């Protein structure tokens, strides 16, 4: 199994910086809360199609995102793989994707996850168990991230995208441990971790909205 490329993710970060700051006006808050080294999991709300690229271009470290396999079509597939992004089949237990994600963390990298699974309201109302599994299995801290785009409808050229040159806020929260310290990976331990994660992510999103006025 070919492990995700750290150099590729660094290239992706550079592309993200140029793309995001060229098309929108990102405001980044709390980036200092991201650990400077070691494995980290970004748990990101998902309301816009640009949430992934936005975070790639605004995070202080390169990010390897778990991205649905449906996005890897045509020339976009090799490009995403080339910049260190991870293809995942959401309809099955994708052991290759799981192995790649754990490899990122074992190598001290940053794994990006949309715990809601698909783009929706972006309010962390429904979390999948994968985030808890990766956090408990690896012991990596989770950093909650709120991406808050413009709510204006005028000026949108593409559906589900914020208007060009509008401000988009990216707010990083305090890192936290998802597990209970026992190292257990039983179903109950993962369920309990999921509850703890949801509480922390929901609280961060509330704080981010209050901080940004969104």
Strands ordered across the widest β-sheet? 1-7-6-2-5-3-4
Q: What general form does the structure show?
A: globular
Helix content: 25-40%
Mean pLDDT: 85
For the record, give the distance between the C-alpha atoms at the N and C termini, rounded to a whole number.
43 Å
- The fraction of residues in strands falls at 15-25%
The parts where pLDDT drops under 50 for at least 5 residues are 152-157
Number of strands: 7
Main β-sheet description: 7 strands, mixed
Total helical elements: 6
Q: Structural class given helices, strands, pairing?
A: alpha/beta
Reading the helices and strands in chain order gives HEEHEHEHEHEEH
Q: Radius of gyration in whole Å, from Cα?
A: 16 Å
Notes on the protein architecture:
The structure is a single chain. This protein is 37% helix and 16% strand. Mean pLDDT is 85; it is low at 152-157. The protein has 214 residues and is an alpha/beta fold. The protein is globular and about 45 Å long. A 7-stranded mixed beta sheet has the order 1-7-6-2-5-3-4, with helices on both faces. The chain has helices spanning 6-23, 51-58, 76-82, 95-106, 130-138, 187-212; strands spanning 25-29, 40-44, 64-68, 86-88, 110-113, 142-148, 167-172.
């Amino acid at each position: 199994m070919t492990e995700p490329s750290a150099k590729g993710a660094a290239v992706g970060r550079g592309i993200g910086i140029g793309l995001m700051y060229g098309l929108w006006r990102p405001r980044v808050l709390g980036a200092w809360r991201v650990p400077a080294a070691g494995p980290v999991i970004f748990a990101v709300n998902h309301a816009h199609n640009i949430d992934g690229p936005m975070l790639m271009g605004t995070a202080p470290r390169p990010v390897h995102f778990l991205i649905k396999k449906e996005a890897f079509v045509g020339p976009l597939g090799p490009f995403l793989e080339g910049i260190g992004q991870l293809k995942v089949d959401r309809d099955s237990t994708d052991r290759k994707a799981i192995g790649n994600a754990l490899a990122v963390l074992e190598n001290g990298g940053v794994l990006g996850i949309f715990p809601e699974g698909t783009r929706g309201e972006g309010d962390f109302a429904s979390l999948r168990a994968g985030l808890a599994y990766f956090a408990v299995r690896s012991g990596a801290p989770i950093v909650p991230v709120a991406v808050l785009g413009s709510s204006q409808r005028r000026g949108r050229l593409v559906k589900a995208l914020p208007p060009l040159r509008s401000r988009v806020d990216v707010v990083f929260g305090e890192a936290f441990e998802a597990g209970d310290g026992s190292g257990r990976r039983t179903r109950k331990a993962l369920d309990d971790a999921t509850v703890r994660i949801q509480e922390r992510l929901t609280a961060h999103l509330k704080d981010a909205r209050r901080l940004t006025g969104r």
